[in-house]
Design brief:
By secondary structure, the protein is an all-alpha fold. The chain has helices at 17-34, 50-59. The chain is elongated. The termini are far apart.
Length: 66
Amino acid sequence: MIFMKIVGSRLHIPDSPAEAVRRAERIIDEANRLAPHPKPRGFVVKAKTWHEYAAWRLAQTNPRLW
C-alpha cells in the first residue's frame, strides 16, 4: 500500500465563476480602498527617447502610473 503525505489544506475553490468574479471584485475594491495613491485615469506618455521616459518614471511619486 502506498501512502501519500499531505501538507496543509486545499484552498476553497469557488462554487461558480460568478462567485469567483464577486470575490475578485471585493478584493480589488479593498485594495483600492487601502491604496495610498488614487487610481489614475488612462493616459499615454510619449517620450522621444528611452532616457526621457526613464526620467519621467523617476519623477513620478504614484507607483500606479507604471
